[in-house]
Specification:
This protein is of the alpha+beta class. The protein has 3 helices and 5 strands; from the N terminus they run H-H-E-E-E-E-E-H. A hairpin with a 2-residue loop joins strand 1 and strand 2 (49-54). It is elongated and about 50 Å long.
Length: 114
């Protein structure tokens, strides 16, 4: 562990004592699956609710208030959804949707900088 009173120890204590955030946890799990699909996101908050935002796009991913479903959409289109229990399927469908967008409408899918 870190020596008490150090910045690292204080930061760790804040993480350990933070309230459980099921929506944030579900989104971070999905975020890891999206990385495997070469889709890169950042975690943001909209009125206190966590959201994943695909880098360099207007594509957003979120959960319902009960953390039962993942939803995603770009701009003004209708949102698609999948149960949180099917996160792997959600990651695949999101990656496919972004690939379609990048080849059809000019929306750029973020790729790592090498």
């Amino acid at each position: 562990m870190f020596p008490p009173g150090t910045p690292a120890a204080d930061a760790l204590r804040e993480i350990i004592n933070a309230p459980y955030d099921p929506a944030g946890t579900a989104l971070r799990s999905l975020q890891q699956l999206l990385i495997a699909e070469s889709v890169f996101t950042t975690l943001g908050y909209d009125d206190g609710a966590p959201r994943l935002i695909v880098v360099r796009t207007d594509f957003t991913i979120w959960t319902d208030p009960g953390e039962q479903m993942f939803f995603w959409k770009a701009g003004g289109e209708r949102a698609s959804h999948v149960p949180v229990s099917e996160a792997g399927d959600a990651a695949r469908r999101i990656a496919e949707r972004l690939t379609e967008s990048s080849t059809g409408s000019g929306t750029e899918v973020a790729r790592p900088v090498v």
